[in-house]
Design goal:
The protein is α/β, with parallel strands linked by helices and 224 residues long. The protein has eight helices and twelve strands. The longest helix is centred in the middle third of the chain and has 21 residues. It starts with a strand and ends with a strand.
Length: 224
């Protein structure tokens, strides 16, 4: 299920967007001010953001600009009552993917949302997001809240193995084959030590892991 963040301070419009998009099968979260929206967009994984321009605190242009400066590639569709061409250009220049002027047709908005998600589809094949983390397989990079986290080649292979087998319990032997390579001989303790190190780089609370979970007597499972 695709996850959408709606940022709109007019309660009636926000409720209408939430209801309409949920009926289309999306998971929809709502924020009504720029600061809260920016915080959630940095700390949670969303597939698309519908971002109103006129917001309390930070306006939509500021939110979009700061997300892009932080490295976020989440598709953003800006919503505004302003009709001047300069406003549209500014929105696109700050990094928005699309721009819609109020009042708009719900049917057109749904089409724009589908198009934006479809365009992002190719990137989604090479980028995986969970929590505030973004793993770019093409660049072999991990970013947390938009900041690059240094990983060794082995740590990246281990993380990739978890992500590509998400939801499955992987034994230490399987992790050895996937990350170290078939025929490598190291002890189970070495695998455990690398998992502990990786948790420190991807988990909000490494001592209480949410994503790389231990399954007693079997191995590990990635939930993200």
């Amino acid at each position: 299920m695709k996850r959408i963040l709606v940022v709109e301070d007019e309660a009636g419009i926000a409720f209408g967007l939430q209801l309409d998009l949920r009926n289309e099968g999306y998971e929809v979260e709502v924020e009504s001010d720029g600061e809260s929206a920016l915080r959630r967009a940095r700390n949670e994984a969303f597939d698309l953001i519908l971002l109103d321009v006129m917001l309390p605190g930070k306006d939509g242009f500021e939110v979009c600009r700061e997300l892009r400066r932080g490295g976020s590639k989440t598709p953003i569709i800006m919503l505004t009552a302003k009709t001047r061409e300069a406003e549209k250009v500014l929105g696109l220049d700050t990094g928005a993917d699309d721009y819609m002027t109020k009042p708009f047709s719900p049917r057109e908005l749904r089409a724009r949302v589908r198009a934006a998600l479809r365009r992002a589809g190719d990137d989604a094949l090479s980028v995986h997001r969970f929590g505030d983390a973004e793993v770019d397989f093409g660049r072999c990079e991990l970013r947390r809240a938009g900041r690059r986290v240094e990983l060794t080649a082995l740590e990246f292979k281990l993380l990739a193995a978890f992500i590509r087998n998400g939801g499955k319990v992987l034994s230490r032997e399987q992790l050895l084959d996937l990350a170290w390579g078939h025929g490598t001989f190291v002890t189970d303790r070495v695998v455990d030590n690398h998992v502990v190190t990786l948790r420190k780089k991807v988990e909000p609370e490494p001592s209480n892991p949410r994503y790389i979970v231990s399954v007693r007597g079997l191995g590990y499972r990635f939930d993200g």
